[in-house]
Request: fold
Amino acid sequence: MPFTHRPEVPRWGVQEIIIPGPQTGNPFTEQHLTGVFTSAGEERTAPGFYDGEGRYIIRFMPAFEGDYTFRITGSFLETALEGSFTV
Reply:
């Protein structure tokens, strides 16, 4: 499943990951997403939310410089989404 994110984010900036998903039913209550962000200095979990028109978003603010990886799981994802970025 295609998703978008920025390859670089400044420290204390916001990484926004946008994932297309279902619009049927009530996506505000029937669907969920969770992102786990990991670097050498921290591991944080961030919830996702439905933004309308089939867009789901997870936002994360990194506290450390360096390389981060992320893993996103959700109710409508067949497999976890993984990626990385640099702070």
Observations:
- The two ends are 25 Å apart (CA to CA).
